[in-house]
Amino acid sequence: EKAEALRLSRTLKALIARWQAGERDLPAMEADAMQALRDAGWAPDYITLRRRVDLGPAVAGEPLVALGAARLGSTRLIDNLED
């Protein structure tokens, strides 16, 4: 589980990369990220991309933060990554 725990951070990085590449269907992007974790045996609570200033909905051109929480085995992991 310890080595697998890095997957949450990689998932958040991938979410930011998709946004920076110009994708804007955020609900689909978040659903894809959640499903990728499920496929790897995780139980995700949430994966989302928000404005850094107030955690409001993501807006192109504003500083963002990717947030996620998921269970891996008996451990609940929480991570965030600023773009």
Mind sketching the topology for me?
Blueprint: H1 6-20, H2 26-39, E1 43-51, E2 64-72, E3 75-82
Antiparallel strand pairs: 1-2, 2-3
Sum up the overall morphology in one term: globular
Protein structure class: alpha+beta
Q: Could you tell me how far the N terminus lies from the C terminus, measured between alpha carbons in angstroms? A: 26 Å
Q: Summarize the main sheet.
A: 3 strands, antiparallel
Which spans have pLDDT < 50 for at least 5 consecutive residues?
none
Average pLDDT across residues? 96
What integer value in Å does the Rg equal? 12 Å
Strands of the widest sheet, in order across it, are 1-2-3
- What is the H/E order? HHEEE
How much of the sequence lies in strands comes to: 25-35%
Count of alpha/pi helices: 2
Helix content: 25-40%
Number of strands: 3
Quick summary of this structure?
This protein has 83 residues and is of the alpha+beta class. 35% of the residues lie in helices and 31% in strands. The protein has a three-stranded antiparallel sheet with strand order 1-2-3.
Explained architecture:
With 83 residues, the protein is an alpha+beta fold. It contains two helices and three strands, in the order ααβββ. Strands 1-2-3 form a three-stranded antiparallel beta sheet. The mean pLDDT is 96.
